[in-house]
Amino acid sequence: MQADIHTLYESDFYRVLDFRCRCKDCNTSKPEYSKAFAISFVRKGNFLFNVFRQSLDSYSGCALVTKPGYDHTVTHIHTVPDECSIFEFKKDFYAELLQHYGPARFFFSNDLHSTLVHTTPEMEFFHFYILQLIQTRAGSKLQIDNLVMDMTSMILGALTEYTPNEKINSRLKKNHLATIERAREYIAANFTSDISLKEIAEYSYVSLFHFSRLFKNFASTSPHQYLLATRLQHAAMLLRNTSLPVADIAFTSGFNSIEYFTAAFRQKYEYPPAKFRITNLTAPNI
């Protein structure tokens, strides 16, 4: 497969790769061998990841989980070149991971070589936030490692048998996949601001009338709930890892009201922010 692959960051137990396909024809690649366990977030494009008895329909809002030791091919079914963020884990870490997740059918079955996870707003938050820290060089090694561990646990905790989303057909992807890619991108970059539905729709090149329906079809949640979940995940991360005052965390995460933040946080995490911090406290990063 023709692609530009660059290492963005390397840790003791993983590396983060930027994958950008350069194939000009919508055809199927030659067989390729997966050497490492990897979690790949699809940022742009649409492709079929073909493994034993399965073709995994991959596009924005999906994370591809790949075991080492198996062949695969890739079929390009979209005119937009594919872009992925690949978290590739080293052999020693994969051995430790198997000790913890080994009982899961995905890991012990030789018939399951790879699978797809439909990502939640929380998963996408970790994906984009980690990339931001790497690209701006704003994060410490320990901070990025902790975030990668949290993201990995969240993805592996959601592993199920792959089933395609029947609501998202080929015509919908062809016409509107780029819309949702831009919407996710805009929310990830601006969730701390007071953004409106019209702003997201305009950035995504679609009418306000159609945007909410399209977004919910792809993300299985409304734009407002997606934004709220992103803000709450950011707040939870800061509560776990910093000593910032709760009020500062609320405003830093995009909330304009302490009361609303506290109520929304309690509804999602069962505890108010201050109690959540006490029960989940780790060593501060900042």
Describe this structure in words.
The chain has a domain of 118 residues: Jelly Rolls (Sandwich), CATH 2.60.120. The chain is 46% helix and 22% strand. The strands form two sheets. The protein has a six-stranded antiparallel β-sheet. By secondary structure, it is α+β, with helices and mostly antiparallel strands.
Strand fraction = 15-25%
Following the backbone from N to C, one meets helices and strands in this order, namely EEEEEEEEEHHEHHHHHHHHH
Largest sheet data = 6 strands, antiparallel
CATH class of the domain at 3-120: Mainly Beta
Helix content: 40-55%
**CATH topology category name of the domain at 3-120:** Jelly Rolls
Short summary of the structure?
The chain is 46% helix and 22% strand.
Any chance you could write out the topology, listing elements then pairs?
Layout: E1 3-10, E2 14-21, E3 32-34, E4 37-44, E5 46-51, E6 54-59, E7 62-66, E8 70-76, E9 83-89, H1 91-101, H2 105-108, E10 114-118, H3 121-136, H4 141-156, H5 170-190, H6 197-203, H7 208-219, H8 223-241, H9 246-252, H10 258-269, H11 273-279
Antiparallel strand pairs: 1-2, 2-9, 3-8, 4-7, 4-9, 5-6, 5-8, 7-10
